Structure formats: C-alpha cells, structure tokens
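Morning, I've got a small favour to ask if you have a moment. I've dropped the whole record in just underneath, so have a look.
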Amino acid sequence: MSYNREQLLNLPVDERIEIVGALWDSIDNDTIGKQFSKQEIEEELDSRINKIIKNPNSLISWEYVKAKMKM
C-alpha cells in the first residue's frame, strides 16, 4: 500500500498519533540494541564493574540524585 506524505501530514493530529503508534509498535524490539555482541556487552559491563571496584567513591547515591532533581 502506498501513502502520500502530504496526505499523511494533513490528517488530524489524533489520526497521525495513531499511525505513529502503530509504526513504532511494528518495529521489532529484538533488533534494538543488537549492534553489540553478547561478548562486547559482557566486556563493557566487566569494565564498568572494575572501575567501580577501583573507585567506589565515584558513585552517586540515588538519594543524592533525587535531591538534586527536586532543586
């Protein structure tokens, strides 16, 4: 089925939102984030964990973050 871009842009906002939602839902969630291999992800996680172990004072507490957000 072919759609004319101009016709789509001239639809009422609620119809355009519905179309956007349908398009977004049609994107296969399994393809999102697949640009890294499992090994690459594990290596990155290990690297981050090691940085935390070496310098635990570099972490920011959740309480601190929440307090800053309320400012």
Observations:
- The chain has a mean pLDDT of 83.
- The first helix runs from residue 5 to 9.
